[in-house]
Design a protein that fits this description.
The protein has helices spanning 34-46, 68-77, 120-127, 139-143, 157-172, 191-199, 207-229, 235-242, and strands at residues 4-7, 22-25, 53-57, 87-92, 113-117. The protein has 243 residues and is an alpha/beta fold.
Length: 243
């Protein structure tokens, strides 16, 4: 099975140096929300073909010290696809001590993730790794080792809980989220909510929750029927009689 090597436009990586691997350029729109773009990138590169290992750069984009490779690695781990549990090797020139203050540093504490030197030899060795530490059974536990802060555009834990509860209810009731005006599907592409979903393993719907929400939906439908069949009172005639 081949490995996938992602590299930026300004990278020294050349596909000719890794003929046994697939090499693809990271291209994203810097004017669009970064999580929306990274979610799109993961779905673009990792949903069609299964790979043995994923090799991604530590630094790319306008500000190299943002270490976007760490953020991209979290997106890989929190996006359901055939490569979600594959080994991720992040190559760069920075030592691990320089990354400690990055908000996504804790991804390096999880299984199946390694920081390697930006060298042809190290990258080539990474592409040949046949081990696999991560799987469906321990993914949720490993994701729990990652610590993410509440996004700045949300007020507090209470507002996060309300939104998260609404998303779970809609999902368990099998309701199309696009039909709910008060909910934005793009919120689920935010890295914080993707992390919550993977950590809590909400892909598997709780049967009791599904049953309750189904009953709730049936009650709503019955209420709508009763309202539609209720007699209509002509208030204009009522006013005339009073006079």
């Amino acid at each position: 099975m081949q490995s996938l090597i992602l590299y930026s436009n300004h990278s020294e990586i050349s596909p000719f140096d890794f003929k046994s691997s697939i090499c693809e350029t990271i291209i994203y729109d810097k004017n669009i929300n970064i999580d929306l773009e990274f979610d799109r990138l993961v779905n673009l590169h990792l949903t069609q073909k299964e790979y043995q290992n994923l090799i991604i750069p530590l630094c790319f984009g306008n500000i190299l010290s943002d270490y976007l490779g760490l953020r991209l690695a979290v997106h890989v781990r929190t996006t359901s696809n055939i490569n979600q549990n594959k080994n991720i090797y992040i190559y760069g020139f920075e030592g691990i001590n320089n990354l400690i203050n990055n908000e996504f540093f804790s991804i390096l504490k999880t299984k199946g993730i390694a920081l390697i030197n930006y060298s042809l030899l190290d990258i080539k060795q990474a592409t040949e790794d046949n081990s696999c530490e991560l799987n469906r059974n321990n993914l949720s536990n490993e994701i729990s080792k990652i610590n993410l802060s509440i996004p700045l555009n949300y007020f507090d834990n209470h507002s996060i809980a309300n939104l998260w509860g609404a998303f779970r209810l809609v999902k368990s009731a099998n309701i199309d989220i696009n039909l709910i005006d008060s909910l934005n599907p793009d919120d689920l592409k935010n890295i914080y909510f993707k992390w919550l979903q993977t950590k809590n393993d909400t892909i598997i719907i709780d049967h009791d929750m599904s049953r309750i929400s189904k009953e709730y939906r049936n009650d709503l439908n019955n209420l709508k029927d009763k309202i539609s069949k209720a007699p209509i009172i002509d208030l204009s005639n009522l006013k005339k009689n009073k006079h």
